[in-house]
């Protein structure tokens, strides 16, 4: 049977135009019935889903059997955004998927995407398991060299505060949803940010000063606009983001942390250490440098000119940095 069809997709709502052929019908096993065709999906409103918004347009072709449809195509969302931030970032995907037309289960193999200027690849499954009312999402995301600006523009209100090259590898699991996505989201992965530079002058000024003190030259204004790196391993479950390790560095200084961040309460709880190339007396100038000379041996340890146990608490908007007087505790012992 050759067909031409025009229909309205219920979710996300939009118009689908398709033409192709179907059959012959396999009555013994309908899933073995062959089909082939091409489609155009216009003006699909992603705003019906929790957390995201934008208008999707997609074109592609498909072939196979009803139980194993191989589809290839392209999807474009020029105004893709997360509702919590509402900052649109263009998203384009080139996809190849395997769909079971009898139950809607889908395998991504893989999807190549472009978010702003950042390329990444996603593979995995969207499956409804027996006894479940909703589907489970299991994905692997690989981003070999993206822009941190693109991601921050997507997830943060206002303009991005940092620039740099981001490498990200993570597993994403979303169990069958009955509440908010954030409450169910499971993440496990690793990231690396290179050539990081803060775009807000007050933050960059503090980073520059940390580098000057770390190099023992607190008044050397030639040490300016320094770039930083950040590496971390993370796990998110039940809105608790835990860092097995989180390292941050600039020339002359290195920070190593472990701990967590609770998304629901916006609460930071990180502990670790700060290593400076310079001895503690070299972090200041004038008479203070000479006054701190006797203290150098007490802070110079573990191969660092200055070694301090530190903590970060407070909120993401107003983090508080300080000495960790309980640095010998169990949480800090895991950070070397």
Written overview of the protein:
The protein contains six helices and 19 strands. The longest helix is centred in the middle third of the chain and has 14 residues. It has a domain of about 140 residues. The chain is elongated. β9 and β10 form a beta hairpin. The C terminus is likely disordered. It is mostly beta strands and about 325 residues long. It has a 17-stranded antiparallel beta sheet. A two-stranded antiparallel ribbon has the order 4-7.
Secondary structure: elements and pairs:
Layout lengths: L1 E9 L2 E10 L11 E12 L6 E2 L1 E11 L2 E10 L3 E2 L8 E9 L6 E10 L2 E10 L8 E12 H8 L6 E13 L6 H4 L1 E13 L2 H14 L13 E10 L2 E11 L2 E10 L4 E10 L10 H6 L3 H4 L6 E9 L4 E5 L6 H4 L3
Antiparallel strand pairs: 1-2, 2-3, 3-5, 4-7, 5-6, 6-8, 8-9, 9-10, 10-11, 11-12, 12-13, 13-14, 14-15, 15-16, 16-17, 17-18, 18-19
Sum this structure up briefly.
The chain is mostly beta strands. 12% of the residues lie in helices and 53% in strands. It has a domain of 137 residues.
Q: Which terms would index this structure?
A:
two-stranded antiparallel ribbon; single chain; 336 residues; mainly beta
Radius of gyration equals: 26 Å
**Number of H/I helices:** 6
What fraction of the residues are assigned to beta strands by DSSP? over 45%
Q: Which blocks of ≥5 consecutive residues have pLDDT under 50?
A: 328-336
Structural class: mainly beta
Which whole number gives the mean pLDDT?
88
Cα(first) to Cα(last) distance is: 68 Å
């Amino acid at each position: 049977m050759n067909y031409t069809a025009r229909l309205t997709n219920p979710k996300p709502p939009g118009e689908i135009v398709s033409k192709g052929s179907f059959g012959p019908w396999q009555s013994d096993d309908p899933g073995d019935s062959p089909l082939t065709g091409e489609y155009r999906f216009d003006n699909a409103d992603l705003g019906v889903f929790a957390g995201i918004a934008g208008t999707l347009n997609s074109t592609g072709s498909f072939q196979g059997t009803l139980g194993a449809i191989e589809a290839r195509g392209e999807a474009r969302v020029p105004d893709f955004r997360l509702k919590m931030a509402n900052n649109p970032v263009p998203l384009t995907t080139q996809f190849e998927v395997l769909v079971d037309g009898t139950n809607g289960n889908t395998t991504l193999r893989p999807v190549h995407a472009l978010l702003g200027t950042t390329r990444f690849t996603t593979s995995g499954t969207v499956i409804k398991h027996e006894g479940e009312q909703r589907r489970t999402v299991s994905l692997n995301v690989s981003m070999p060299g993206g822009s941190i600006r693109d991601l921050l523009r997507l997830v943060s209100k206002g303009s991005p505060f940092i620039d740099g090259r981001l490498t990200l590898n993570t597993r994403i699991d979303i169990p069958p949803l009955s509440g908010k996505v954030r409450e169910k989201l499971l993440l496990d992965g690793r990231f690396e940010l290179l050539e990081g530079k803060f775009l807000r002058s007050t933050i960059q000024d503090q980073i520059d000063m940390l580098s000057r003190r770390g190099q023992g030259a607190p008044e050397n204004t030639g040490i300016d606009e320094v770039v930083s790196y950040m590496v971390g391993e993370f796990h998110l479950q039940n809105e608790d983001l835990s860092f097995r390790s989180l390292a941050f560095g600039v020339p002359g200084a290195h920070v190593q942390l472990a701990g967590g961040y609770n998304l629901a309460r916006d609460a930071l709880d990180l502990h670790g250490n700060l290593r400076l190339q310079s001895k503690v007396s070299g972090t200041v100038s004038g008479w203070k440098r000479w006054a701190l000379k006797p203290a150098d041996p007490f802070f110079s340890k573990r191969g660092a000119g200055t070694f301090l146990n530190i903590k970060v608490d407070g909120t993401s908007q107003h983090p508080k940095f300080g000495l960790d007087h309980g640095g010998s505790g169990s949480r800090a012992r895991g950070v070397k």
